[in-house]
Amino acid sequence: MPEIKVTPLGAGQDVGRSCILVTIGGKNIMLDCGMHMGYNDDRRFPDFSYITDGPLTDYLDCIIISHFHLDHCGALPYMTEMVGYNGPIYMTQPTKALCPVLLEDMRKVAVERKGETNFFTSVMIKDCMKKVVTVTLHETLQVDSDLEIKAYYAGHVLGAAMFHIRVGSQSLVYTGDYNMTPDRHLGAAWIDKCRPDLLISESTYATTIRDSKRCRERDFLKKVHDAVDRGGKVLIPVFALGRVQELCILLDTYWDRMNLKVPIYFTMGLAETANKYYRMFITWTNQKIRRTFVHRNMFDFKHIKPFDKSYMDNPGPMVVFATPGMLHAGLSLAIFKKWASNANNMVIMPGYCVQGTVGHKILNGAKKIDFENRTSVEVNLTVEYMSFSAHADAKGIMQLIRHCEPKNVMLVHGENAKMEFLKQKIMQEFNINCYKPGNGETSIIPVSIDLDVEVSLPLLKHTMALPTSSSSSSSSSSSSSSSSSSSRGNNTEENRTKKQKVLHGVLIMKNNNLRIVGVNEAWGDLGVTAHNLRFTERIEVDETGPVPALTSALHTLLSQKLGSSQVQAVNEFQLSVADSVFINIQDDEPGKTILLSWTHQDEGLGSKLLDIIKSNYKKS
Amino acid sequence: MKLYCLSGHPNKPCNVVTFKSVTLMLDCGLDMSSVSHFLPLPLVASHRLGSLSTWVPRDADSQLEGELRECMSRIFIDSPPEIGPPTSGLVDFAEVDAILVSNYLSMLALPFITNGTGFKGVVLMTEPTMQVGRIFMEELVEYIERTPKARHAYRWKHYLRSLPQPLCDVKGPKTWQQAYSLKDINSALSHVQIVAYNEKIDICGALKVTAVSSGFCLGSCNWLISSDHEKLAYLSGSSTLTTHPRPIDQTSLKNADVLIMTALNHTPMFNPDSMLGEFCVAVAQTVRSGGNALVPCYPSGVVYDLFECLSNHLDNLGLSLIPMYFVSPMAESSLAYSNIFSEWLSSSKQGKVYNMDDPFPHAHLTRTGRLKPFKSLHAEGFSSEYRQPCIVFCGHPSLRFGDAVHFIEMWGNNPQNAVLFTEPEFDFAEALAPFQPLAMRPVYCPIDTSLNFTQARKLISELKPGKLVVPEMYLRPPPSAPHRTDLTLNLEETPLTYSECQVLDLGIHRRLESVKLAPGLALALNLSNIRPGLSTATISAGLHVQDNKYVLKPLEDEDTISKLPNSYPYGNLSVDDLVQRLAQAGLTDARVEELPGVCIITLENEDVIIKISDASTHIICSNTKLREKLRDILLECLSSF
Ligand SMILES: [Zn+2]
Q1: SUPFAM superfamilies from the entry (chain B) (predicted)?
Q2: Distance from CA of B368 to the nearest CA of A (A)
Q3: What is the pTM of this model?
Q4: Is the reported ipTM for this assembly greater than 0.90?
């Protein structure tokens, strides 16, 4: 039985550092190559030595990157340029454009601010990106003659994709991060009913069923508004691209409607950069933005202005979007240190924070944060968490499963306990296997394969022209009861067998190529001659009347048993049945002899006729 | 497999192919050549056009009065223009399962096919084809609707023979129709399903169709139509030149059983590269000497290359300050869309997005105000921006409607001005006929990047199709150059040809169909080896059909199974072997009698005769148990599967 092997090198029962190794149909594929934002040591990158010590080119057929978030692509330059990999890397066009921007940003923070050495360089990022092949949504891209991949829209962030990977009849879907509900700037994830053998799904929000988006948004706006009303400063740590655009659209529209004058800032001039990318990749945004983009750019904000570091100390209320999103480094952390002690202020964490980050600590109620240089800060400001991350929640994950009908599911990129809960739910609701291997653990998923064969068109047409066979026919009571007992309790199965036609032919396997042909076609194809096997059985009976009388009586008897169309009188002493079995009656004073003759191929009919004749004309 | 040709114009293709009970329409191009017989529609009432004398044939009734007007001894129809949709009647459009659209120029007849015909199929096209195609259609509608005519002339169609040339030669004017409306466009486009390049689309479970890049224009494609065993390639507008679109994908088209090739170059006598050069030079000369340059064009396509090359050329000559106006109801949309479809562009244009640059330089030209888009002459701001000398790009290339009509009227009497014809579709003399006499200088520099005959021949030899199918007229030189035999598709092997309203049998006969074998059935098969690499088994199975896909599953019904042979013996029987095996089974009284061509074995005690000849054996006996025993012994002596 063929199988699919999956080993997470990262994101196994964990959030962050997505990197999943898959073997399918003899092909080795790496799904994502992310880094862990919570670590500064070796644990930050996946352990590639699991595959081999040294370069990886010979061990992998390709790498697929789902989207530009660093927990999905952050280890890529390290892997390709420092560990060594020269094979193809697949990603969408926006991911290819944005991935190096974020990698470079992270590199600067690591090397220039934290003074790390032995980190990848700018040149390495460029060299790494040269190995990238872009994929368009829905195009079937042939990696080699056996392996094909197809990308689907995943929502989540600009350019995010899910991937369908197929080798022969085996296939799997890898979701990356996805969002099943459309938002203000992106559409919802979509995939067709591709029935993969395995669906590997993220499960960041495995147990969350989020309240309505509208409520969350209203809640967010109210909290921001209240804070600035009482003169507080609001810090919203964000990643440069993605959620922040969503929140900016939301806040900008609200400020406009409420006619608010409190300044809103966005750090690093990234607003402009992001804006430009959004304009170029407008085909990746949602319907509404695409429809109106010619006349109105949704990303030209009226109230949001660029931020300067000096504004940090300005008096009075303000709202600042600052990077990075988990308060683990950079400007957002610097602002946090400045504002944390004032109870009037507020920080809103709009997304998930991995373990080890300041974001994670304050979300868990830490009242005092210690820093590496022995400084610390009191956390007096209000800490709010609002799930604005565009991940599928439990409902969304179930919806995706329902939609693409996988034969097995694997959960990754989630917290173990929550995954376990969802796993049970999936197994119950869909009656399929669900896996959740840890890092370095291999799951083996057996797959059944349908064989593809070629059938000769004459045979197929002949078969389709036959009357439909019905398994519960009245011809033989014993066999019909046995067949109905075997399929009892499965009504649809029985209905389906009722619609079948019976195909009879010869299967020929020539150099691993399978073909089914009609029996008469087969001889030529095989280069052998049929051996014609014929049987004639003599049955002596006591009948004393003339021969034609017995012929006629037999004709009547067999017509009753088999249907009149099956039996033909050839002459006064000969009958033929179904054009293949012949009956000859000889006068053999004082009784008669019936000669029944049939070929080996008609053994079934021949022996049936024999039974009928013998039981009706027993010789005493 | 059959092909129905619904268009007599190879560059406005519309063919229907039936294959495996599926009906596919390949493109639905709109032949607009009829519009040249109509009077132009000016934006503002034109004194000159209004004062053209009416023309009536000698034997016509007076009702024809006012339908026809004469300009410089050419007769024009004074009516809203009419266009010739694809032939109806040959194919019932309600039966069409899918329409495959190759590019935005080949979809303009869509409303005539999909609206009010009972059409229930899907229309497949790429996203740029859909967006740009919509721009083309909406522009056409806007041009015609904003200059309404009170009277619709139709009686002239009954007096064709009395009309002078070329009007008396027009084909089927009674099938001509007025342009569609915005509502018609929306209804037609509601059938569209967007496809990506190399996306495999299932049609009725029977066929897969795939769009592959054709290198001709933004989002243009050729189509592969395949079953599991046959492959049909349809090649429409294609280019092997390097311009702005993504290059042609030739590999995918290789080794098709049938290749249908159409929409080759309109103007094969003109090299597009040198025409582009001549265009730039002529525009520069005109503006340098104080004249204005009018470029009648479509709202998308080669015009992007014109912006790019011309602005570079003017820069080099220090003429950067000459303004360029792009006047079309769709100008702004066209410019905006062109820069968001980077995935559909050449790799050099696509590469720009990685440096945060717009793919087309016209984005920069518009931002800096060198290229100014306007909805029309009357649009807000145009009159205040308007400076001379200038370069105006505007529609429509037929010069029968759109702002171009106004500019010709306005600039026509000044020999300093020039009108430059780059769109290959319309003959420039024809286009200018209702404006004569003109002092304005016409420059003919048609730029058609699609395959010329030499490129087409080279492509055919590389693609190696089983059969080639082309429009019949590609085997003859163009009427304008009857001696240029090089301007034909002269190939070593004469291709199959078609012409309008013809039905062609493509002669592809299918022999095999793919079927899935359920795992349970595969495991139960008992393969016997005939010789190395060849093995075989008798198979009886239930054939199930769902969505035109076949699956073989195990038969559960014992009764059905027992009626079917479970093995087939083959080859010759060795008499010695048989006798030996009979003896082993206790039948020791076999008497063998060799006769010419037959050998008879008699088992006297059991009243059995066995007749053996080449490839056949006949057992005659009167005891069923014994017969079955003999049968089994015999089958042991024979090979079977
Ligand atoms: Zn993500």
Answers
A1: Metallo-hydrolase/oxidoreductase (SSF56281)
A2: 17
A3: 0.84
A4: no
